[in-house]
Prior knowledge:
Order of helices and strands: H
Amino acid sequence: MRTSAKLMLLPPDAQVSQPASMLAPHVHDLHVEIQRKIASSDDNYKLSANVRCSVNFEIGDFVMARIRPE
């Protein structure tokens, strides 16, 4: 989710089911692991992209710049 969900508090007389209370920590741990893997993947992609594009230009070098209208 890109935005936070609006959560409502449970009424005081509501009961939480046992399977739901056992599943919640598992889902939380799964989200943490997925976030860690995405961050690792992003880091690896950044490293490989920087290695391919390591060109050093000097003052006076001619370069071709591609400018998009966005």
